[in-house]
Design goal:
This protein is mostly beta strands. Helices cover about 0% and strands about 35% of the residues.
């Protein structure tokens, strides 16, 4: 199989009007609804559900058992760990269906961010570029660029390099121990220097 080919496992359902980018692989028992848009070179694990208005960028990795409901946007290079949870309605009730778009609160995960296994993302928030949500966290508010959060509720626990390593700052400067990228910090926001 060439890098440009799309692979869809025979046990998965991909509706005809879903858009799938070149090089994307969709594994066992997944369902991509009509209208969903998936970029190039994505890896969609088994038992993943992608609803009609979901937009997924390029090079996104979605592990097993993730449901992406209407209103979720994953930008390029996002990683979703196994069984992480996205919601799209803030106050669901079985007896009072809220199944029209005016009830959906959009959720955006920006470029390069990671959502760890079993994390829950409450709808209506934004997870910043290269942010990192630890496994099992419950995210109830926006997460800024490069910020590491974990816990229930998730709280700021530090700053992360683009490569996924925690940064240790001294005098508002840090060098990533893994990739040697350098950063400058100003009021808990960081800028990459090299």
């Amino acid at each position: 199989m060439s890098q440009e080919e799309i692979f869809i496992h025979p046990s998965s359902f991909v509706d005809e009007e879903a858009a799938i980018g070149a090089g994307t692989h969709i594994w066992h028992y997944s369902h991509v609804f009509k209208g969903a848009r998936i970029g190039k070179n994505c890896k969609i694990g088994q038992n993943v559900v992608i609803h009609p208005t979901v937009v997924i960028g390029d090079n996104v990795k979605i592990q097993n058992n993730v449901s992406l409901y209407d209103g979720v946007i994953l930008e390029n290079d996002v990683f979703c760990g196994p069984s992480c949870v996205f919601t799209n309605i803030i106050n669901p009730r079985a007896a009072y269906p809220r199944n029209s778009p005016e009830f959906y609160k959009p959720t955006r995960v920006k470029q390069g961010a990671t959502v760890g296994a079993n994390a829950t993302i409450v709808c209506g928030i934004t997870i910043g570029r290269h942010a990192f949500v630890g496994a099992g966290s419950v995210v109830t508010k926006d997460v800024a660029d490069h910020v590491l959060v974990y816990g229930n509720p998730a709280r700021d626990r530090g700053l992360m390099c683009e490569c996924g390593e925690k940064l240790l700052f001294a005098a508002d400067a840090a060098m990533c121990p893994a990739c040697q990228k350098q950063y400058k910090k100003c009021e808990n926001k960081i800028t990459r220097l090299s």
